[in-house]
Amino acid sequence: MGDPYLRCVRTAELAALAHAIRIVDDHGDLNHRYQALIDDSQVVLEGNRIRLTQARGLAKRLVVLAKAAGNAMRAQLTRTERDVLDAGLAQADGLIRTADSGA
After folding, report:
1. Which domain of life does the protein's organism represent (predicted)?
2. Phi, psi angle pair for 101, to nearest 5°
3. Exposure string (b/e) for 46-55, b if CB count within 10 Å is 16 or more?
4. From CA 51, how far away is CA 67, in angstroms rounded?
């Protein structure tokens, strides 16, 4: 697979992750520190390509943000929004597991 610090991924491939971050941004009742994580994530996703390590960092951020937003946010989402959030979390899980397996 190569060095993850040198390997890049197209941000278009991270669409599920980006959409899930947007759902948390739109519906989560988060403090300014979590909001800063969202804002930073959206800036990173504006580029065409990012390092694989950055993508993994975004994945971990999404997990943290979703946990911080909690079940109250999830309860107010429509079925479609929950599906979008779940798809993003699934993509995040895949990126995190890849990192944990040393690939």
Report:
1. Bacteria
2. -85, -5
3. eeeebbbebb
4. 25
